[in-house]
Amino acid sequence: MDKLGLGTCLTLLLLNIFIKVCHNTEISLTVDISAGRQECFFETLPAKTNVEIDYQVIDGGDLDIDVLVSGPDNRVYHLDQRKTENTVKFESTQEGDYRICFDNTFSRFSNKLVFFEIYVEDGKDDDDDEEDDKKLTFEGENVQGQLDMTIEEFSGILERSKKNLERSIQVQTLIKIHEAKDRNTQEANFFRVNFFSLFQLALMISVGLVQVIVIRSLFTYQQPVSGGSLKART
Q1: What's the topology of domain 24-123?
Q2: Greatest CA span in the chain, whole angstroms?
Q3: Contact present, 158 and 20 (Cβ < 8 Å)
């Protein structure tokens, strides 16, 4: 095979691998839901696609939110009420725009800071991937046969590697969000403790001053003024 033919084959191989490994998509956002408001987000999905949605309320109020996931035919796939976090998994039934709504209408004063992540899979079963990985042991007498992989097999290995990396990034992101939520909770508790401590200190000082004034007034002696002394002075 000449150099031109080899270069063409390598180009086609890389292009095919790139197309194969780009099936999975992942979207993550952090949004501020105002009090008494509802915010909806739309994602276009093909039919028969596995979708996973992770959400967490990071800051605001009691760290709770209402969540609604519905399809293009207004079918409700999932509904959560007053939850802090959850993982929603479903399979799309038809192609179209799917809606994810975060409802904070039950709150009158507190805004909610919500992180959510949408992970769209290619629909391939992970069990099939594990079976394919078991075949590639590179041990025994069939080493040469295992090395003679086709483009599809090599693309599948890269696709599974990409999926595992995306899962690792997803887990790390969720850990960071948990840490941010815990930090916000600690800062809110710290502010409350300091505020009530200062309030109690001011109240104790005020009560102490009132007690001192009352006690001093009880022991203050006022000498009565007689009528004779008034005549002598005049």
Answers
A1: Jelly Rolls (2.60.120)
A2: 140
A3: yes
The domain segmentation of the chain, as residue ranges, is 24-123, 160-218
Angle between helices 151-218 and 126-135 in degrees, nearest 10: 130
64 within 8 A of 83, measured Cβ to Cβ: yes
CA–CA distance, 217 with 53 (Å, rounded to integer):
70
Q: What is the pLDDT along the chain (234 residues), one digit of tens a residue?
A: 444 444 454 455 555 554 444 455 678 888 899 999 999 999 888 888 899 898 988 888 888 899 999 999 889 999 999 998 888 999 998 899 999 999 999 988 889 989 898 888 765 555 555 555 555 454 544 544 545 556 666 677 777 777 777 777 777 777 777 787 778 778 878 888 898 899 999 999 999 899 888 888 877 766 665 555 555 555
pTM, two decimal places: 0.57
